[in-house]
Amino acid sequence: MRVATLSLSFSIRGADMFRYSNANHKTEQLYKYAETVLARWLSDRRYKVYSIDLLSGYSCPFAEKCLSRAVEVDGKRKIKDGPKTEFRCFSASQEARLSNVYNKRKANFEALKNAKTEDGMYKILADNLPLNAGVVRMHVSGDFFSPAYFKAFLRLARNNPNVLFYAYTKALRYWIDNREEVESLDNVVMTASRGGKDDHLIDEHALREARVVLSADEDEYIGELDETDIHAADPARRSESFRLLIHGSQPAGTDAAKALQILKTS
After folding, report:
1. For residues 56 and 142, what is the distance between their CA atoms, to the nearest angstrom?
2. Coil, helix or strand for 48?
3. 255 phi and psi, to 5 degrees?
4. Residue 23 carries which DSSP code?
5. Which residues, at least 6 apart from 12, have a Cβ–Cβ distance to it below 8 Å?
6. CB 24 within 8 A of CB 90
7. What does the pLDDT read at residue 220?
8. Residue 39 burial (C-beta neighbours within 10 Å; 0-12, 13-18, 19+)
């Protein structure tokens, strides 16, 4: 059952353009667990996996080692890496190549930014939440870009206890500032994405994390390799760190590009 949203007396520019995304190749792997660890959320096949996708880089204020953006140059989009990029954001590469993907994520980001307040952003998230949502990933692209947006997300989860929400994030300070509430919600699973400006908070606050690795046997002590997103989504593993294998196009000549070539030929 969906909870009715707060009635607001103003209209939010671009809110009608906001859209949740269907499962992509990776998140649709979660359906494999519909009868086991995700049975509460997906055993009824009417319920589906969705994501919220925002414009990569622009909505990621704490990104560093993965910072990339799709930028327009002479009427065309190209990828632009940040000054400390070590591995390129795969979703930014998608946005540089695919106009429909870029436009959708840009519209989503602008709608939330224009809303400005927690109430306004919550209304957009809640009004557009699909009625058959069982699992929602926050985000396949983008991140929590403001404290108000993070609080709007928590309110969405609190008011929809029958939907599982999970997120990778580098916005660690927002998580820590709201940690008590995050941990009180059994339908919220958070993962610190190492490689951002606030990595020190991962160790200081003992946050569970995901690390991007260049080979399947790198940093095995961190935890298992997650190739289906189940480590990120499974509430029973919310205290277990894990690894993610490098993927997507990478800057030529970098260690990430060399590792990706090895993986493709092995």
Report:
1. 5
2. strand
3. -60, -35
4. P
5. 111, 114, 115, 120, 123, 124
6. no
7. 63
8. exposed
Q: Encoding tokens for residue 188?
A: 């919220």
Q: What is the pLDDT of residues 193-213, one digit of tens each?
A: 998 999 999 999 999 998 876
Q: What is the DSSP string of 199-230?
A: THHHHHTT--EEEEESSTTTTGGG-EE-SSSH
Report the residue count for the chain. 266
Helices 90-97 & 99-115 angle (0-180, nearest 10): 110
pLDDT digits (tens, 9 = 90+) for 6-48: 334 344 555 678 999 999 988 999 999 999 999 999 999 999 9
* Residues 222-265 pLDDT 10s: 667 778 899 999 999 999 998 877 555 556 555 544 444 443 45
Q: Give, in degrees to the nearest 5, the angle at Cα 49 between 123 and 134.
A: 65
Nearest C-alpha neighbor of 58 from the set 100, 91, 15, 25: 91
Q: Is 25 exposed, middle or buried (0-12, 13-18, 19+ CB in 10 A)?
A: exposed
